[in-house]
Amino acid sequence: MALSPETPSLTISPVMTALSSSTHTQQVILGLVQMACSDRPGTNLDKAVAAIQGAARQGAQIICLQELFGSRYFCQSEDVEQFALAEPVPGPTTERLSQLAAAHQVVLIVPVFEKRTEGIFHNTAVVIDADGSLLGQYRKMHIPDDPLYYEKFYFTPGDLGFRTFHTRYARIGVLICWDQWFPEGARLTALSGAQVLFYPTAIGDHPDDGEEEHQAQREAWQIMQRSHAIANGLYVAAVNRVGREGALNFWGTSFVSDPSGRILKQASADDEETLIVPCALDRLNTTRQYWPFFRDRRIDAYADLTRRWGE
Fold first, then answer.
1. Average of per-residue pLDDT across 247-265
2. Model-level pTM?
3. Which of 140, 151, 265, 273 is catalytic?
């Protein structure tokens, strides 16, 4: 059962009351699949297929899987044997899920460990339209190298930029996990036309951190993504994995935020769940009129953002 947690108290202005009470007609229904993964890729794919079918039966139109859903999170160590998990795009996973997308008339966001060629691998999300066609892919741009997150050993940084995909049901952008912490990626994706920004994710608690630190990190993770929704006037959908894998305990809590940063629905921290979340797309137009951040951007003054530091 999906949770509907209380969000922090806010002072709601008359403007925001008008936003909340206005009538919306243009709607898209999102499906977020939060899974626990095994070390058997075939089993994980079968589980994802079953979850997609269930989400489609509940009316979901755009369904997102979590980062590297086909395996356990292997980046906890540097092991050349793990490269055997990679596959090309298109490949076996995208072929099966393309057929599924066409059969159910749903858009799918499919994160894979992409083998581009010998020695070049990417952490990639493939976007499949509702007719089963591959619209394109996003390759993770920001690659972490932290304890138990040794992704630089495996993944070449993305080279496709920040993109929007015009699907049957909405214009969507996709960023991946560590990308969540960088406002530049969210802004550039929004500027390319995204109405919904998806973040397939694999984030969990480091065993050396105490419970207070765990809680602080979880709150920061959610606040950061809610801020992307507010700053860019769009919906944000974060899809995390769940369960213990090796030393990491993945904290789930997949959620969707509306353009005002309010959580529409959130999954648990412990259980596998599929969230079904309707989103009113015409809310973006109203929100951006009242909070005109794009209008007031000083694009003439931002050149130093391309510098590593300010000196």
1. 97
2. 0.91
3. 140
